[in-house]
Amino acid sequence: MEVGVGVEVRTESVTKSFGSQRIWQDVTLTLPSGEVSALLGPSGTGKSVFLKSLI
């Protein structure tokens, strides 16, 4: 069996605002390498904004 290769994704104290409206504050997250992770939540809660902030 072939072992998959991945990278760890880590954020520390990320804050996002649109103008004066703070969307989230001090978000810290670690996604370990070699793991499958999912970002789940209701529509409009900032999932796509968070992922776009990583790139």
Layout of helices and strands, plus pairs?
Layout lengths: L8 E10 L2 E11 L15 H8 L1
Antiparallel strand pairs: 1-2
Account of the protein in words:
Helix content is 15%, strand content 38%. The protein has a two-stranded antiparallel ribbon with strand order 1-2. The termini are far apart. It contains one helix and two strands, in the order E-E-H. It has one domain (9-53). The longest helix has 8 residues, at 47-54. It is mostly beta strands. It has one helix at residues 47-54, and strands at residues 9-18, 21-31. A hairpin with a 2-residue loop joins strand 1 (9-18) and strand 2 (21-31). It comes from Nocardia vermiculata. Keywords: ATP-binding, Nucleotide-binding, Transport. This is ATP-binding cassette domain-containing protein. Pfam families: ABC_tran (PF00005). GO terms for molecular function: ATP binding; ATP hydrolysis activity.
Gist of the model:
15% of the residues lie in helices and 38% in strands. The protein is built from one helix and two strands, in the order ββα.
Task: Specify Rg, calculated over alpha carbons.
Answer: 14 Å
Along the chain, the helix and strand elements come as EEH
Give the proportion of residues in helices. Answer: 10-25%
Number of domains: 1
Number of helices: 1
How are the strands of the largest sheet arranged? 1-2
β-strand percent reads 35-45%
Overall SS class: mainly beta
